[in-house]
């Protein structure tokens, strides 16, 4: 896989945020995980869709002791000494007195999903593949979260970044769960680690001149400010929406109830340290403004309508869907469920452009389109049976074009054209993910770009506009789809990934090992 010998990377686990702590800091270098396993960069030529081999330098050798030369028969080491004129040292034309030694690394290879790794090999993050990359952990892992839109403006690109969000925990004890309302601030660009290679004297001088700048940069640590809201039961899924200027979060509890929470107070204290301290001191416990217990079991499917203010749809594990409509200060939930699925409803997505229309997917392997203006038992307008070979876990409706993306237990990612919904998928990627797909989301800024996350501990970013040049060939061990732009790893048991709606190219993901905030260099 690479010519150097790779060994263990002794990583430190980032500090955990305790429930009574209000402000914690990110790790300034996001490569500090409880294990290191991150594919870093596939840099694509956007004209041909082929991998640029010169950019695939992502796997580094790191040993617990100084590296030794390989015991090759020819005696070659991992480095070749050359002088500044490009001549081999000790060969005719070289000058040992005046030449400056530099280290020339043999070409490294990027790890590609599906490659076989040796027992003594591991993956090391190439930070140069990211514009920004940070990680943080919470008191308990979060199955679901959502990004809270803010008033800082759209299409932001200037660093440092600020973002707001809300997540729901999955604590071991039911009464120990919380909604975590959070503010991520002071998020700077990631500064790649300096090379371990020996520097020349000139290079050392240049590094010395940059010491002050580097020290100043390292003091700019991102901060996470949180306000907790007690939640009874693990949060299976959470979705956020402003309604009548109020910040609302809808949550699916493992106990079988769905609640709506007003986050006005916990959200307001994040920008005022004194108010935050008072919030913590008084141990405020906001209550849900509405709770529905009419589902016959717990569930995961939940989505706010983007076209009808305050309208919500929820689906449970017994196959039923209920639609909520706001009325004054409460919600009316039709007790007659929307019927059509024959097994657990896993996800729901409202149409971004057509009011009254939503889509759902199920363990019964079907994707269905519904119209809420019709009676619940007749509202199923379109059905794609056997859309996947097994359970369909997630769907997402393209915000700009008539496409739906779906991911299932068959490890396949499929794209459906609503103009020919009952036909076959218009795109399918079934050999990349090696585990069930648990999250999929279209980019809000690029209509052909989407992200998918799977139980194989990777997040893939795709651009459906990419095509491979038929005349181009690749010698890579694993053949990759032309549409694959980037693969992000380093988390265990990934649950959800979301694009930030106001910061193009930035994604946030949650997993059993914490959150990642990142922006790939090529997105």
From TrEMBL:
Repeat (WD) residue spans along the chain: 338-380, 385-420, 430-464
Domain Histone-binding protein RBBP4-like N-terminal residues, every copy: 120-186
InterPro entries named in the record: Glutamate-rich_WD_repeat, Histone-bd_RBBP4-like_N, WD40_repeat_CS, WD40_rpt
Entry's localization field: Nucleus
Keyword Repeat: yes
Stored SMART domains: WD40 (SM00320)
Pfam families: CAF1C_H4-bd, WD40
Keywords: Nucleus, Repeat, WD repeat
GO biological process: ribosome biogenesis
Positions of region (Disordered): 64-105, 191-222
Keyword Repeat: yes
Domain of life of the organism encoding this protein: Eukaryota
Listed name of the protein: Histone-binding protein RBBP4-like N-terminal domain-containing protein
